[in-house]
Specification:
3-stranded antiparallel sheet, two-stranded antiparallel ribbon, 10 helices, 5 strands
Length: 243
Amino acid sequence: MTTQFADHNGIYLYGMTDPEDLRRYIQQKYAEAEIQYAYEHLLEGAKALAKQEKIPPIQALWKILDRAYEEKAPPLTCQKGCAHCCHTGVMITELEWEEMVNAARRKGIDLNDIIERAGKSMHKVEKTLESGVDPDKVDWYTMVINQPCPFLEEDQSCAVHENRPLDCRTMVAFREVCDSKKLEHAQRGAVIEEAVAPTVIARLQYEQTPKFKRRKFTGSQKLRLIQHWLLVWRQKQKKKRKK
């Protein structure tokens, strides 16, 4: 990997042509032993904080991750209203989605309104799913590129910012505010917690799954677009109304 796309803070998204660039960057920046220790420390830390504050483990994880950026990285230039990074696909686990749903409920947000205002991207995703194509072979990011996130408000703020998923939390900028959807200043790989957070989330979801439904832990969980999860939610609501 050439260094022109990275500095001591992280790897720049602008100029990246291969998703494997991030994985290679992390492997170069952190030793395998460091990554394993960080995983165990973050997992146990999230569980302990959740128990202490009586909050869901995923909320505890978000708190620890926020603290890591505050203590280990330069001040973020990201600010309310700089929403260029909110115009791409966001892939999340079921655990992250459930936390977003709970946050919406607490805030009095009607997900039907969210679905309605995201009509264009929702339609694209729905038609693709109905076509019978293998979901694992679809480039979901490209499908909704330049489309606003369903949870992006009119003032360009996030409706569930405190409970936003990992994909959003780890897209950060330290130099300047991004000028366009090219995300010229956005970087990944700034803190080691980012490198292990996906596996921690997968483990938390695994442990919350009833034992009779569990399969062997593989270190990952299925990812879906936010739009896909909204379609799943809508379908569940329809079934409830029929009962």
